[in-house]
Amino acid sequence: MKSFKPLHKEKIMEAVVSIVVLLIRLLLGIILGVFSIYLSLRFFDRMTKGIDELKELKKGNVAVAIVLLSLIVSVGTIVSKGIEKFEEVFNPYYSIQLFFIALIMAIVQIVVVILIAIIAIYTGIRILDTMTSGIDEFKELKKGNVAVAIIIAAVIYVVSFIVASSISGIGNLSIFKPETMATMVGLG
Predict the structure, then answer these.
(1) Considering Cα of 120, then 122, then 124, then 126, what sign does the dihedral take?
(2) For 94, which of 63, 71, 99, 106 could close a Cys bridge (C-beta 3.0–4.6 Å)?
(3) What is the structure's pLDDT at 57?
(4) Taking the complete model, does pTM exceed 0.70, yes or no?
């Protein structure tokens, strides 16, 4: 029969801290994910004057559902890249001041990511609108034109994949490093 070594207090503490960090990251991810989706849907609603998305969904308008689905998945994809940076906030070597600076910088970074996502998707849709001058995409969506919805969704997806891959490097910018910000505010 094997005998088990008792766990050291340090190992137990390390396990507890890692679980707490995981739960905090999960909670922040959920909050920021829901916020970014809400914000992007509100922005899309303002962009599509003449379409009441909820009313169209209640009527079973599949075209509107396709576009909203692509928007939600795309924003989620982009924001997930920004949320990855929250891992760096919980660096065990950070002082309490550096921890709070890192937390603030991670939140600023995710806000920047959300804004970039919304602007990029808006720009992609506007470019599509320019390229298809004979089609009023939003009127077609309201009529339930699934073909137009698929093209709009494709543009949203492509833009989001490109933005998501570019965003992954945003945390490497020195302005988003907690040490840089600590030096700028006189703490480092």
Answers:
(1) negative
(2) 99
(3) 92
(4) yes
